[in-house]
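Researcher: Let's do a round of design. I'm pasting the structure tokens now; please hold your answer until I've finished.
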């Protein structure tokens, strides 16, 4: 029902997949499933969520390459846990395989890892919503503006 309303009201959106991959082949299979499920909704971009320690840098690379193939070179992003970024890099994670990098860091101090195009920070109260909502910002160190993410580049 969320997707019907998003499409009805023409709200721009992307989709993400939380990875539990335990091998490069498993990561590729996840991306096949991800694209098969999400592509019908025509998202602006596809994001791999790497926050599980079972995932390693080489699996992230395999996922990036596979997602580019199955999505016909759509915009792709990597949502990578701030506390795991360095570990994934030491395992060979290649951030250049992704169009953008999105890092959650739940404090008022932005992530120091580079590249960092989007920063998710601690929750904010929004009238009408119980609890707090994570907020996302185009990082000061980011390579793109809002129009790039919305496909409104001139």
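Researcher: That's everything. Go ahead.
Model: Designed sequence:
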């Amino acid at each position: 029902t969320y997707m019907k309303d998003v499409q009805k009201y023409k709200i721009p959106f992307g989709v993400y997949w939380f990875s539990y991959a335990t091998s490069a082949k498993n990561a590729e299979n996840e991306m096949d499933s991800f694209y098969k499920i999400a592509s019908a909704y025509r998202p602006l971009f596809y994001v791999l969520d790497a926050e599980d320690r079972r995932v390693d840098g080489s699996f992230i690379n395999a996922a990036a390459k596979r997602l580019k193939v199955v999505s016909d070179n759509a915009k792709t992003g990597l949502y990578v846990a701030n506390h795991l970024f360095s570990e994934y890099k030491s395992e060979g994670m290649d951030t250049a395989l992704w169009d953008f990098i999105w890092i959650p860091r739940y404090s008022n101090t932005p992530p120091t890892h580079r590249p960092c195009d989007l920063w998710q920070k601690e929750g904010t109260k929004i009238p009408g919503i119980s609890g707090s909502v994570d907020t996302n910002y185009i990082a000061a160190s980011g390579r793109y503006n809002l129009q790039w993410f919305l496909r409104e580049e001139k």
